[in-house]
Amino acid sequence: MGKKGSRGTTIAELRWPMEKQEYLDLAREWPLDLTRIALELIWQGYEILQANVLSQIDVKQADKQIEKSLSSLLERRIRDVMTGDETFVVQHEVPEFETSVSDKAQPPTYDIAFILRANERIILPLEAKVLHSDGQVGEYVKEINNNFLTCRYAPFSSEGGMLGYLLKGLSNRAFNNIAKKTPCTLSDNPDFPKRHHKTSDHQRSIPENKLYPLNFRCHHLILKIIK
Predict the structure, then answer these.
(1) 187 neighbors 200 (Cβ within 8 angstroms)
(2) CB of 224 within 8 A of CB of 166?
(3) Nearest to 1 by CA among 104, 95, 97
(4) Which of 26, 32, 116, 166 is deepest in the core (most CB within 10 A)?
């Protein structure tokens, strides 16, 4: 075990050493081919969640662990619509050991993540935040600026996503507030023209001596929880 403040070596790092150029190339290319498939699975899982769970209850009565509960429920329904032939798996609460500061520190943990089968250190992460109204987007914006754009999240991926569980208000108003407070430009995603799904493009701060992708695309999915 490493000393306090040090970084040891994980099992995944032994199995998939990222200093190899082929793995670095794979990390950069993975989102180009697979992001659309993964995001479509999220929308399909959300539709099932709405039909089989959320429409059957009064969600407004829930007042405990809403974010964690929704992410866990959503992840299981994503699994239900996967064929098993995908080149990735999906998992709830995935640790990112690459950017943990020491062996003693708790690593960043993604709410939902798609993990490449060929190299399980390459992760397409999604962070979820409950939006109690379309104007309460502060915590959502912090995840983008403090984690995605610093490479604390998605170090090996040029894309990642935010899930906004909207409890009250309108998706378009939430998007407008996110764009103002980040600040960023939100663009329609042509792959999902009928969804509340936009993207923003950024340049990240890359830690010294790291080869993480500089350009980063953030996907913004607003999932309305209460109609």
Answers:
(1) yes
(2) yes
(3) 104
(4) 166
Does some domain include residue 2? Answer: no
Residue 83 lies in a domain: yes
Helix locations, the chain, DSSP H:
11-15, 21-52, 66-81, 138-143, 171-181
Task: Judge whether 1 lies within some domain.
Answer: no
Q: What is the mean pLDDT of each run of 10 residues along the chain (227 residues)?
A: 61 80 62 85 98 92 94 98 95 93 86 93 95 98 98 93 97 98 97 97 94 93 89
Alpha helices in 53-164 (DSSP H): 66-81, 138-143
Domain count within the chain: 1
CA–CA separation, 45 vs 26, rounded Å?
A: 27
> Domain limits at 188?
12-224
Q: At what angle do helices 66-81 and 21-52 cross, to 10 degrees?
A: 100
Beta bridge partners of 164: 129, 222
Strand order of the β-sheet with 187-188 is 88-95, 109-116, 123-131, 159-166, 215-224, 197-203, 187-188
For 130-142, the DSSP string reads: EESSTT--HHHHH
